[in-house]
């Protein structure tokens, strides 16, 4: 994991502290600091040996942190509509996939069938500038991530999804509560000052209910 800085500014400056820090530390994106903070706040959320799915993974900042967190015995699968520059570590698999495409589930299963100990989404839509539209698009992506976690997440596992606050945010958080024992809403230090984004973190996925006898 990364060291912590004492001079972490929150206001938006195009080439701000985190941008420079990411460059200095050889990180592909400043967003690496966000997942790093989440993993530090919830130290059992991604363990050594875990299988982790990273949705919206390009250019690979989250993946750089996650591959360290799972270690050599773990596995990290990263997908995005944009190609991800290959990783040298053999425990990382990447692919160009659109999570909203009809064949996404089949293509993901072909990459790695799971189950996943953690499903993480940093997906963000192309913004239109229209607040309601952007919130709805963001929630659609987060909703798809939750659907994947419901289908492929391991009992006891973790969920993390970026969502733009507003709109049906609370309904989404309630959905996460149905599947996870504990739910937290986190705004990492590295989030740009003006941004409406937060991360909904679900801890300890509930075991699927046992089938009811006829
Ligand atoms: C903020 S960036 C992710 C940054 C990444 N976590 C990192 O640390 O490098 C958001 C990503 O979501 C991806 N995305 C948006 N819609 C998507 C979709 N339908 N399927 C897959 N990825 C999507 C975008 O292409 C973009 O790369």
Model description:
- With 214 residues, the chain is an alpha/beta fold.
- A 7-stranded mixed sheet has the order 3-2-1-4-5-7-6, with helices on both faces.
- Helix 5 packs parallel to helix 6 (169-179).
- The chain has helices at residues 17-24, 32-41, 61-70, 104-111, 131-152, 169-179, and strands at 51-55, 75-80, 92-96, 116-121, 153-164, 180-186, 197-205.
- The protein has one domain: Rossmann fold, CATH 3.40.50.
- S-adenosylmethionine binds next to helix 3.
Query: How far is it from the N-terminal to the C-terminal residue, by CA?
Result: 50 Å
Poorly predicted ranges: 5-11
The tally of strands reads: 7
Note the overall shape: globular
Short description:
With 214 residues, the protein is an alpha/beta fold.
Layout of helices and strands:
Elements: H1 17-24, H2 32-41, E1 51-55, H3 61-70, E2 75-80, E3 92-96, H4 104-111, E4 116-121, H5 131-152, E5 153-164, H6 169-179, E6 180-186, E7 197-205
Parallel strand pairs: 1-2, 1-4, 2-3, 4-5
Antiparallel strand pairs: 5-7, 6-7
Helix pairs in contact: 2-3, 5-6
The structure holds S-adenosylmethionine (SAM).
GO molecular function: methyltransferase activity
Binding site for S-adenosyl-L-methionine: 60, 62, 80, 98, 122
Family: Belongs to the class I-like SAM-binding methyltransferase superfamily. RNA methyltransferase RlmE family.
